[in-house]
Amino acid sequence: ATPTSVMVGSGRAAQVGILFKEGKFLEVLGKATTIVLDKTGTITKGEPQVTDTYVHDGNERAFFEIVGAVESASGHPIANAIMRAARQRVVKFPQANQAEAIPGYGMQATVNGQQTLISNPTYFMEQKIHIPRDAKRMITKLERAGKTVVVAAIQSRFAGIIAIADELKPSSCSAISRLRKMGIDVMMLTGDNQAAAQSIARKTGINKVQANVPPQRKAEIIQTLQKKRGKVVMVGDGINDAPALTVADVGIAIGTGSDIAIESGDITVIKGDLSKVVEAVKLSKATMTNIK
Ligand code: ADP
Ligand code: MG
């Protein structure tokens, strides 16, 4: 590859907000057979809103005090949605201690001396935290409606449900169809539930979806794809996606992108949305044509 054309290509990319960490990623991108997309914050806006709340016992304000205290320590889009809802009901939150993210699952902390967990229902099963039957029914109904459902437990006892819905970014549908027209296989991997994943996949015309995939597993799936089909690109918003972004042949952090992910490896940063990924692939192909 001639260094000059790669430099020109990288320069042009930078002008439109695409920062290649190294020239070689610009070269590899155009050869991608498969592009794997994260859902939350990548295909969707990542600014979800709380749509439904169910408090098992006690009042809603007390529930949001505790839940808000825990989520104030998380930067996840879901946490931000919960915080927006919590601030409408609570003025001052108690202190959260030993706050800790469970990547791909949820968040935990000690509030008012009580161990509090907020996560997806799958993690509750793993932790053997019992969810009452009527609550389970509510969860199924909300998930079928395409919502992301998180559950809260205080001292390992089920405390309530929060449902959240996210919107597509305006350009996602057209960007995904343009990638597919270029002959690239588009796949979605998400830590979110099957129904929410399917609902977004249907709207964007993606037919390969895997849901309930924790961050480390995303990386493993990418490695399997690399063995089967060659160059694999991973696009994520950076939050929780660091392992997958790092193992991909080109890891693209889109949007805000958490600093952790950006520092964690050979990652390309794109400001904006998936239409920028389409531009980047085109630029890469054009650059490679000039090299030949
Ligand atoms: P995605 O792959 O769609 O970006 P993530 O891997 O970031 O999703 O998160 C997967 C799931 O873990 C979320 O859908 C949610 O159910 C749960 N989760 C993650 N972070 C939090 C949090 N801070 N509070 C509650 N639930 C969370
Ligand atoms: Mg994400």
Automatic annotation (TrEMBL):
Full-protein positions shown:
393 to 684 of 734
Which cell locations does it reside in?
Answer: Cell membrane
Q: Which family does it belong to?
A: Belongs to the cation transport ATPase (P-type) (TC 3.A.3) family. Type IB subfamily.
**Per its record, how is this protein called by name?**
Copper-exporting P-type ATPase
Per the entry, what this protein does is:
Involved in copper export.
